[in-house]
Amino acid sequence: MNIKIRLNRLFWALGLGATLPLLHASEKTLAEDPFALAQKQSQSIGEKPWTSRSSEALRKWATENLHHKLTARTVIDAEAHPEWDWFRKSGFGLFLHWGLASVPPNTGDAWGMVWTEHRAKNGLLRTPEEMFAPAETWNPQKYDPNKWMEAAAKAGFGYAVLTTRHHDGYCLWPSEQGDWDTGNKMNGRDLVKDYVDACRQNAIRVGFYYSGPNWHFDYKNKDFSWPPAGINYKHEQVGVDAGLAALMGYHPPLPGDGDHLEQAESTEQVRELMSDYGPIDMMWWDGNAIMSPEELAQLQPDIFVARGLIATPEGMHHGQSEHVKVTNEAGWWWELCIKTEQTYTPNWHYGAINETNHWETETFLSELVRCRSLGGNLLVNITPRPNGEMMDWYYQVCDEIAAWMSHSREAIYDVDLDAPLPTLDKTQNFTTKKGDTWYSMPDDQDAVFITGIEEPKSVCLLRTGDTLAFEFRDHALRLLVPVALRTELPDMVEIVF
Prior knowledge:
Layout: H1 3-13, H2 34-42, H3 55-65, H4 85-90, E1 92-96, H5 117-121, H6 128-132, H7 145-154, E2 159-165, H8 182-185, H9 191-201, E3 205-211, H10 261-275, E4 282-286, H11 293-299, E5 304-305, H12 321-329, E6 335-339, H13 361-373, E7 377-381, H14 392-408, E8 431-434, E9 437-440, E10 447-451, E11 458-461, E12 471-473, E13 476-480, E14 493-496
Parallel strand pairs: 1-2, 1-7, 2-3, 3-4, 4-5, 6-7
Antiparallel strand pairs: 8-9, 9-14, 10-13, 11-14, 12-13
């Protein structure tokens, strides 16, 4: 019996009435016509705010409706800034959270010293002094950033970003400002210099992360709770009227701090980073920017400012495809920064669970294609061990990405990034384009469906060059990658118009 007849009889029995139209035996169901089914599914997408608004109006809409990390400070004129072309052209960055929060006892992040009810109940809380204590003994003996960068370069990473100072305030170089750095704690060892040298040796663009908040500076007079609740550095409840800051690192000058000593120290530290290591390609602020782009440019004329200038969605709660599509259509450059873990942890820095709880190669590449198809960059966080080694799985993943890049690099490198792009408009497949050539990633059924196009001149599997059969009608294309040609990694389909 026809399945729809059965369902309609069931609906009548439940008093719902028949809801599905009956078909004659000669009519095909959508399931019997995969092309028609794909066409119907492609038309069932929800609201597309970018289709009914100008770029200017969309920027206003995004500012009012999306998280602030999905909006940018300005629309960058690419022609006016050819010195930044490398950033979008590359598209693939390595984020390196490494520092005191990597060292036991830790919770995988400096935020572990900030009291919340959740952390307190789940054993994730450390006092600031517990988090600061590793500085007295930490001296990574297996630190080999050249090995990290050699693997990264082969895998197609174009740039890296190291946490030169995280929220714990500890500087990974021998700063002349204050006494909370490797100069005082590692006998002058310069971890930043080794990183910079390794990047340059492997043609990786040099990026610095720097935390505006410094939770070590005058920490006995800071509020270590979120939301602010008057919790001091011993995690004692002292009340918000005790002169504590409302938010770590953002506090107004305290009594006796009229010279803005913390801001002055941070400014001079950034000046060191911009002056002592040669040309620096990228600055990635966190929390608040210590210098404006104009002030940085006086020290590093060609430096590119990421967070603080472009949109930087963080994790998939910000980086959903529909969200970043808006960002791209609004004319903003964007970069997704994301932890490479299968299941959620607090870890931006190393934790033992990071050894096994990590993305597989397929996820790295799928996310890279997704970001590129929506006009953005992918900055993936991978955490070195406390002793300076990179986790073993990192090298295996880099080798597998390198093998994929050997045949499919053109699908993500130097592709068109300015709107309009086909993903989410003409296709649900993540599809990059370079002029008249499109590169489409098959879905989980190994299918590609694209609408609103002219019939292509050729369709092939990028990895092998094999010509692929396809169906084309009503200005739409559908194909299935043959089983014999499929692999576990994204099998990009090259479509030439």
